Amino acid sequence: MDLKKSGHQKIDWVKKYMKVINSIKEKYYDEKPFKGKKISMSIHLEAKTAYLAIILKQLGAEVSITGSNPLSTQPDVVEALKDYGLNVYAEKTLDEGVYWKNIDKVLSQKPDIIIDDGADLGSRYIEKYDTNSLLGICEETTTGVMRYEALNKKGSLKVPVIAVNNSKMKYLFDNRYGTGQSTWDGIIRSTNTTVTGKNVVVGGYGWCSRGIALRAKGLGANVIVTEVDPIKANEAIMDGFRVMKMDYAAPIGDIFVTATGDINIITKKHFRKMKDGAILANSGHFDVEVSVKDMKEIADSIEEIKPGVEEYKIDGKSLFLLAKGRLVNLVNGDGHPIEIMDLSFSLQLEAAKYLLENPDQKINVKPVPDFIDNKIARIKLETMGIEIDTLSKEQQKYLNKGI
Amino acid sequence: MDLKKSGHQKIDWVKKYMKVINSIKEKYYDEKPFKGKKISMSIHLEAKTAYLAIILKQLGAEVSITGSNPLSTQPDVVEALKDYGLNVYAEKTLDEGVYWKNIDKVLSQKPDIIIDDGADLGSRYIEKYDTNSLLGICEETTTGVMRYEALNKKGSLKVPVIAVNNSKMKYLFDNRYGTGQSTWDGIIRSTNTTVTGKNVVVGGYGWCSRGIALRAKGLGANVIVTEVDPIKANEAIMDGFRVMKMDYAAPIGDIFVTATGDINIITKKHFRKMKDGAILANSGHFDVEVSVKDMKEIADSIEEIKPGVEEYKIDGKSLFLLAKGRLVNLVNGDGHPIEIMDLSFSLQLEAAKYLLENPDQKINVKPVPDFIDNKIARIKLETMGIEIDTLSKEQQKYLNKGI
Amino acid sequence: MDLKKSGHQKIDWVKKYMKVINSIKEKYYDEKPFKGKKISMSIHLEAKTAYLAIILKQLGAEVSITGSNPLSTQPDVVEALKDYGLNVYAEKTLDEGVYWKNIDKVLSQKPDIIIDDGADLGSRYIEKYDTNSLLGICEETTTGVMRYEALNKKGSLKVPVIAVNNSKMKYLFDNRYGTGQSTWDGIIRSTNTTVTGKNVVVGGYGWCSRGIALRAKGLGANVIVTEVDPIKANEAIMDGFRVMKMDYAAPIGDIFVTATGDINIITKKHFRKMKDGAILANSGHFDVEVSVKDMKEIADSIEEIKPGVEEYKIDGKSLFLLAKGRLVNLVNGDGHPIEIMDLSFSLQLEAAKYLLENPDQKINVKPVPDFIDNKIARIKLETMGIEIDTLSKEQQKYLNKGI
Amino acid sequence: MDLKKSGHQKIDWVKKYMKVINSIKEKYYDEKPFKGKKISMSIHLEAKTAYLAIILKQLGAEVSITGSNPLSTQPDVVEALKDYGLNVYAEKTLDEGVYWKNIDKVLSQKPDIIIDDGADLGSRYIEKYDTNSLLGICEETTTGVMRYEALNKKGSLKVPVIAVNNSKMKYLFDNRYGTGQSTWDGIIRSTNTTVTGKNVVVGGYGWCSRGIALRAKGLGANVIVTEVDPIKANEAIMDGFRVMKMDYAAPIGDIFVTATGDINIITKKHFRKMKDGAILANSGHFDVEVSVKDMKEIADSIEEIKPGVEEYKIDGKSLFLLAKGRLVNLVNGDGHPIEIMDLSFSLQLEAAKYLLENPDQKINVKPVPDFIDNKIARIKLETMGIEIDTLSKEQQKYLNKGI
């Protein structure tokens, strides 16, 4: 009962700051573009994603939804969501069986469109189900896009995938500014330690990790970046950061954060070199970047010493792993800020609508069309009351003329 | 039961990162400098302050303690603290009567030393009690120091006051870096909104407020500062901020934060000009900077719409007041980061010890002696493994020689 | 005589910090890959570009060279360059006839490869000469690439063009960090005014202009960005800048800088609104961004009041135009920092070598191949003594595997 | 002839941006407060200081002036200054004899007031002359104030000294923002190397050096600070910088800058550890911070390889010393930005006027009275068109009331 009230409070709150999707909803409300369509969603189940699902329903869709990560599901939001007439199959759980059972329940509706976050939902559908009726998949994350591209390379991608992640209004904002703020929110909230004056080691210098590095610097840390890409490594240096191998960074770091999309960024040999009291967190999609497997293997003891913080005793030192190595911003916090998800979900909505209106897509992983990206950007400016210049005919002509 | 466990977890956690006070405790442990002495404390009652009280007890003192702010008391910490053999009189409450009754309970021990946060405890003692046995007061905050100085000006200060707040290792760190980080923690945690891209209006440009402005910038905000001091106003401009009257800032700001130590920074006329959805928070000691009184007078309705967030409907717009206008970092968060309080509380401990060892102080508000400030600074560097240069005789001589 | 000595000093100096191209030169020195080949160059004629030309000569090429901008040619460098056995046709001049005559002199050698900066050299060759023997053009700038792409769209591009500008080790570094530092060097050097505390208006938020904005912020300015692209406008906001129409920025700005690649960013109506004492500079390739034409039309008087600074009296106010609206970093300074040009010119060298070794390119504007980009990045890290991580097989496999 | 024209151009230019002193001059113009008074000045002789001297003359004073540093004197400004009817005794020279002869020429006027920069002028007067008629000295720099305080400690200070340096509108602005910008101007201008991506080692973390560190960070450097004061060391860490002994920093740094007011910050043992190509600069008052004496002792060769840059060959490596270890911002640049000196010189003018109007000062080194500091701050805000809030009676009362 209280759970449901809390869930409604959260949803009512995010609604106030999701001005872009509110503006889009208003425009489409009479038209009901998703009428008669079935949408399957797998997405971190908290208030903002809930609100996307609600709007899809309000614009006519039949929506089935589950959580994209076993630990990020918020039970109060799940309860509230049921009041809106959605089919919700989600539990906060570590039981993998339950996780996949919920995914199958969602998929059993035979969706017209899949909205995915990490590619578990869509790839399951492709592997196990008849995809005939499916118009396409909209994928939210870097990790998910990489997985669908791998499928495509193998020739197993049976439906078009819109890489929502690859649109500028997504990755330039969600990955960078969203991850940047929410990662530090998750870390600070669960540790109450200073960021200022700390040696922060950031694994990677892609959009997510550079957001994390940028905000660490903004919070007063001395930041070290590790990378495998020499160009990104040079960028990190030019941005004022130290760049080195994780081997060298391990004994220096006070706080480690990974966001690379790859496995084994921090492993056994690194843990052994770390300082007593080092804090470890991950903002990448899966819990494989800080190798929890390795930590478990070499730990003398493991104890959850406060919510979201586990103490691993290794070689007589204490290492503190946050959120079990899963997405620290979602598990130990409330995920990305509302206004950031507003952009990502507005893109999801428009991408889903685009698939509906352009059903004969080539089977491929493709970006959101530019006109959608620009449209979302313009609406966002409008909601902030910001006016920008427009190219005059003369200026347009000059750009095109060449010699 | 669970409450007590949670309290112990919190205290055990902060202990790990309070390395300076741990180092001091170790040094004094055999000596027990506070043996036979009674210390009365009024301080925000959460894990870090609890740990100071515990250490004072472990170094020999009889400690009575209450919360310095009715809303910042954490019940789990209160429960755990009782296990350590301290006299704890604290409740999270809005009942002023209860608040003062607890203060009187603490004072009834007839303290040798008072450790104060905001001057409620000490000024009550001066006003209502016989201060003969009291060696002095150690005051933590800007607000408290201002109040004791006012008492002194009136000739009513009966005991020496050590302005812990005025030592560099306090105000340069706690006020600036501590308030900077914890204020944004409190705001982000309770709103989940972006700071990046927002117009943030900071009331004041003293140490606290410049910490808030610095971190707002570090988090990507566009910061506006309001000030009454023309020199500080010029500094804010040179630091890249816009400076203007609150009148002009009111309609521009998305988030407002005050930390001035004065009243009525944001008042009726400002609320009326604000944007729908504006967020209001305060990090100053009392809930008088954002005039809650004014807000209540002109609001059509007031509702707590989620924990720590009240919606005030004013002229058809929604303004969101955080933490009822009280210290947002303490009420909506866990207060200053551990390592920052480690510095402040190490100063408190050393200041209390200094009063003990130098009982015949002039009645005055005086700073912590420089040697203590430097000592804490050196221990902090040691705990971080950082070595710095030392003046050579030649260099020392050059500095002294003049022509 | 002294002129020549000064030129040699400058070239000897840049040689010390161009470590990437030095490393490449060493590797190719015995091989002499450009032996028997003729290279025509048009490039800002100062020490760093001179050094590229010298190395091309040392690696076997016959080099003819002129300046890509009438005002950026440094006479002392021209004199010194002649000592190295290059054909130099360059004068610092405002006489357009002389400019084009020098270009024709260079082209008369019938080049195998053209190295261009702004597309004047290559497009002249395409228009007026027989391009049969030309293997291709390497173009340095955004502006030049846009011009060649326009030619290509019209079907008039007769040779392959390598868009050196579009390689990451160019635009991420030269355009952003190079322009950022050198623009402010040019402005500060010629005005001796503060940047800190000023309202700086940056026209555009492409790589060049965001470098300018980033450094303005780093120097303490309050930065306003104007844009026509809604996505870039949103990025600028998220980076903490104000974004508005130039119309609104005109009366606020203390210093205006443009770098858009387009015309008429600041025009008549803007000049009329500006503050007395406003400073105007451009870092875009051509002197058309701050409309000098418009300024001249409405000015009551124009006077060069100190080197590189002209006072335009407009409506009783003084506006100060730097470098006649031409590239302020080159005309009022020494251009991009050495280490930045080291990257760009290493790319030029490798791109030219690539054209030589792969003569049958499709006629098109194409990027530098990735392997060259990565190679330059790796050499740069080596010269700084920085080691980075390498993908393990396991990590590589994970990235490729998908589900 | 051309020299004189160039000097006038420079003075006319700075006049445009020295709005605070212009505003003060206007107010006092009819009154002529310095009428019949003799003012001796020793100050870096460039356009801004020249303008202060001119205004003093225009307000009635008889002014004799010399340069406070043998290398910072600009001959063109000297020539122009003579046109204004001042007694100018200054040459750009390394001849110490000439330097002191000029000082004596200035002092021979028997000044009523001395305006000093570094304490050479005033301490000479105290040592060698009859100081009876002297009302006092206004000292500009940290170094000078330290020297006068040392004199005072020895009981040899015969006249009151106003420590203009110690007023907030001086050291918070000139030392921090002024030194910060102008130091990097001097370094970039004479080297054309990147600051971004470099390891910059800053000697000290006082107001000057923290300005240098702040701007280095703003320009993209990775900054290392060395300090002897443990509190400042902690501040530097909290500001995100690395702090270490110069011993450890020596082999890491690409660019070294000192500004401590002490000797031997970088010495023999450090030079031997440095990287080939390291750049050394000083912004402290005297050329003793980077020990040029030590460099000379261990160098195999020394050569000025371009204006303002000397190559020292040490142990087979090249170290580049800028500006002969003297103030790099003045010797290799044009000194502090105009608007910064406008504040400092407005303080000088008001301090001199204060000495005149309050002739019976205690002999002491004392700060500029607060009312002057605030006055300058308010005029500065006015010139920028910035309005700030004012304390209401209610607010004033609250601040004073205590309990």
From TrEMBL, chains A, B, C, D:
SMART domains in the record: AdoHcyase, AdoHcyase_NAD
Pathway: Amino-acid biosynthesis; L-homocysteine biosynthesis; L-homocysteine from S-adenosyl-L-homocysteine: step 1/1
A Pfam family matched in the record: AdoHcyase
Coiled coil spans: none
Cofactor note: Binds 1 NAD(+) per subunit.
GO cellular component, one term: cytosol
Residues annotated as transmembrane: none
GO terms (BP aspect): one-carbon metabolic process; S-adenosylmethionine cycle
SUPFAM superfamilies per UniProt: Formate/glycerate dehydrogenase catalytic domain-like, NAD(P)-binding Rossmann-fold domains
Known catalytic reactions: S-adenosyl-L-homocysteine + H2O = L-homocysteine + adenosine
Gene Ontology MF term list: adenosylhomocysteinase activity
EC number: 3.13.2.1
Domain S-adenosyl-L-homocysteine hydrolase NAD binding: 175-335
UniProt KW keywords: Hydrolase, NAD, One-carbon metabolism
Cofactor(s) listed in the protein's UniProt record: NAD(+)
Family membership noted in the UniProt record: Belongs to the adenosylhomocysteinase family.
Name this protein carries in UniProt: Adenosylhomocysteinase
Organism whose genome encodes this protein: Geotoga petraea
